[in-house]
Design brief:
Elements lengths: L1 E8 L2 E15 L5 E8 L4 E10 L4 E8 L4 E9 L5 E7 L4 E8 L5 E8 L2 E10 L5 E7 L5 E10 L4 E8 L4 E10 L5 E10 L3 E12 L5 E8 L2 E9 L5
Antiparallel strand pairs: 1-2, 1-18, 2-3, 3-4, 4-5, 5-6, 6-7, 7-8, 8-9, 9-10, 10-11, 11-12, 12-13, 13-14, 14-15, 15-16, 16-17, 17-18
Amino acid sequence: MLVFKAEKQDDEYIKGELRYIHRLSYDKKGRPTKVELLGSDGRKSIETIFKYKRKGRQLIETSYNTIQKEESVTTNFFDKSHKKIKVIKKDDDTVTETRYTYDIAGNNIEVLEIVDGKVIEKVTKKYNEKRQNISVEFFDDENNPIDKYNYSYYGNGLKSTTDRYNENDTLLETIKHIEYDTLKSPISEKRYKFHGKDTIISTQTNLFKYDCAGNFSEIRQSVDGKTFNITQVDVEYWQ
């Protein structure tokens, strides 16, 4: 995967300089076995190796930063239905564990983040009868609420609205008019920031494009109607 920074030329955007290369390798089952991140000069900066054990119920990711000479090992655990139930990440200094809890319908309703044996964050989630996520709430290490997101859906599920609140249930931000294509990939997103309850101080718009194979190919970002960034992606396949 080749990622480019788009450049403006004669009031049009053209493909600019290469930012980086994301190279992936797969096994015969279509599972990723290696991911490499290379700079525009072809120099490798990060390499991640994936190993599968226990009939796919355990995945070990070993990531090595060739520039900073740092290594981390992440072990993912899955239940019999292949839902992720625990992740343990070890680096030079800390051990981070993430635990996932599900309801009887298979929805992820709680996530615990544990560092060196201490819970530092809890996330709870709620769903509607269509199993769509309608609420996510974050709690600190003392179980105090710190952030909350509410989600609503309309237009046969092809549009959604997200409201973000602080610990006092004050509206901070609204992401409105997220629209999706028939494959449920986002094609546009508008993000509003508020001062107080009703005063909008800025509007960010993100537009997404995909190639004929459904791969993400471009994001165009603007604030208050002025474009500030375009990122383009080319997907190439090597034998």
